[in-house]
Amino acid sequence: MTKNILIVKGGKYAEAEVSRKTAINVEKALNARGYTTTSIEPQDNLISYLNDNKENIDIIFNALHGSWGEDGKIQGLFEYFSIPYTHSGVSSSAVGMNKFLSKSIFLNNNIVVPKGRIFINKNLNIEEEFARPYVIKPINEGSSVGVNLIKKNTDINIFLKNKYLDHLMEEYIPGIDLTVGLMSGKVIGMLEVITEKEIYDYEFKYNSKNTKYIIPTNLDLKLKKEIYSYSEKSFQLLNCKGIARVDFRLNLESEDKKVFLLEINTQPGLTENSLFPKIAKNSGLEFPDLVEWIIKDAGVNR
Hints:
With 302 residues, this protein is an alpha+beta fold. 32% of the residues lie in helices and 23% in strands.
């Protein structure tokens, strides 16, 4: 029987365009597999649409990213209507999206994370705890939106006079960017991200043609085991579901800790430039198969 899939995409926040690109790819893959799809943006009377059409929606593919899309809010709405939806549930999404809260949980469970603290955006005269360079990032955004490296001569106020209410100040870990893909809590692969910049920001993630993605082959087996262990443990700690991606920084020059978990992404992007489809493909899973797996994994009451 043909399933009716509602794709929720776009929105009004920073990652709306990424979300729309994810939705285009997902819709194409689902249509090719015989699914019937409809798409809607949250601001287009989503609540009344769900109320009027819930009997005709088999599964919601949540293609939203960032605020409201992967922070537990929209998941709560889907739960209210008891419609199966993709990716993690309410609490997993809310905690995973809050970088400070999720890091605190990881730290309390013996996962190494960079040192960090919250500061409120309106308090511009902040007391700097870390020697420069250090990183600031919004607490509740994804896709590297608003991530900035504060160098020796950087005027931090430039980055604070924006729409984000509060930020996370975090020690800068020099080294290698690694990202790990998981399906149902099990690692399916890893990529090293090579950029010309000290940090992998939004510009290099989506707009740069010079960013390279390689499978790390010379990684020490002990370090690889530690990265995979942290990845699966973080997934379990937050009670995630479906697919997730965990980002790391690897500092090979450090004499003490080398592996640092940066954050978990409970709803990875599925655009042409997104990392998760690359990892899945390297593991032998083509994009249509990945999307169909996500649909079959969808559920409610989580």
